[in-house]
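Tutorial, part two.
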Amino acid sequence: MRPISSRQRSRILELEDAARPLEPDAGERDRLMGQVHAYVQRLLHELPDRPAYNIDKSAVAALRELPPGRATLPIEPLLERIDESVVRPGLLPSHGGHLGYVPGGGIYASSLGDYLAAVTNEYAGVRFTGPGSVEMEDLILDWMASLVGFPEGSDGNLASGGSIASLIAVVTAREAAGLRARDYERAVVYASAHAHHCLHKAIRVAGMGEAVRREVARDGHFRLCPDSLAELVAADRARGLRPWLVLGSAGTADTGAVDPLARIAEVCEQEGLWFHVDAAYGGFFALVEACQPLLAGMERADSLVLDPHKGMFLPYGTGTVLIRDGEALQDAHAYYASYLQDTVESEWGGRSPAAVSPELTKHFRGLRVWLPLLLYGEAPFRACLEEKLELARYFHREVAALGFEVGPEPQLTVVTYRWVPESGDANAFNQALVEETHRDGRVFLSSTTIDGTFVLRMAALAFRTHLHTIDLALEVLRAAVERLEAHPERWRPRVTAGKGRG
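Running the prediction step on this input gives:
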């Protein structure tokens, strides 16, 4: 071997020295962590007094004053910029007043799991190189499969959220049915109007945008009707089409409705259809004994999606897909490359996560799920979910007492409601009402449109949402209605479809 030249040695050592800031010593690590920890402590202390929603987003522009990769700055002003330009504007998802959409979580123990995952940089995609991280994910998947009643032999994947988890499920369903491009325009998908849009997006991304879509009728509680499903399937077979996929919901985003899953499963089993259940929002309510009859039938699904960043209150970026037939999942996604030939081993056995999802580069998500479960057990998660169920029922009753027109009694933790003015356009009034609550900002409420009617939503799932939060939301709504009724010019000029009291 030729000796290295002095010039080359000097250059290598010079570059090593220039790169040294990327590996700070123990003292610098302590200093940086001390500043970050102090900010986190301050944020969590101030959180109840901060607004859940800040309508002023002007501070975001200040991020442009710090173009990445040019000037260097100490950690202190960077943390200040993060707080002012990222945390404060818009919605504060970690706030207990986040009562819109389906709230996420952010429990502290999971952030420690993420810290450990990032520092160790464990690779969770291939069992050969990361046996412990893959085994941890498998244990979590086994726990979730047991929770929803999936049988031994099922398989799954920890994905970045419900959207990617749904894509994995749709691709598996496509391959299990043996569908090819020439079949797509005859394949039929059945869903209610309230099926989550990520499922329809997944079908398109999976190359099946030409598939026939059938909207199944809903009952008075916005649940998919199994009898309507059976009729549509029979009619499509008579037309020479190929019924393929049924999308059921264990908690819709619009209203929180849980479809009659067991009856839908019967239709799917009789007709040989793939039954997918979107339980991203509602699946973890299986931890609550009183909810188990409501969710009966989940265990009969062919594929199912759960979002731990919803019902387990974890940070965003944690979704789960479970597939009843584990071999179908592997057949649909397995792919191997010659440069990874060393990773094909028999010592440990079992498949690698990269073989059952689109991801090869895979974050060690398992630690953020595993650590809080081992620290606390199931009990506090169960209690938190049960608390949110009670809060939703309380809100439903009390908002009606304020004079609001309410939707069905909540099955889970979403409540729909609206104010119907004595005269004028109710849709316009409610649109102005939700905007009025956003200007207030102490809680964050959202809206949706159901069959042309603009309604407000309250979704109680943030782990920091408690009784005082709901009482505050009721007060915000009461005061907002009073302001709008005192100033009708704020909403009457709007032109939208809707009806008042008749």
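The chain is about 40% helix and 10% strand. In part three we will examine how such features are distributed along the chain.
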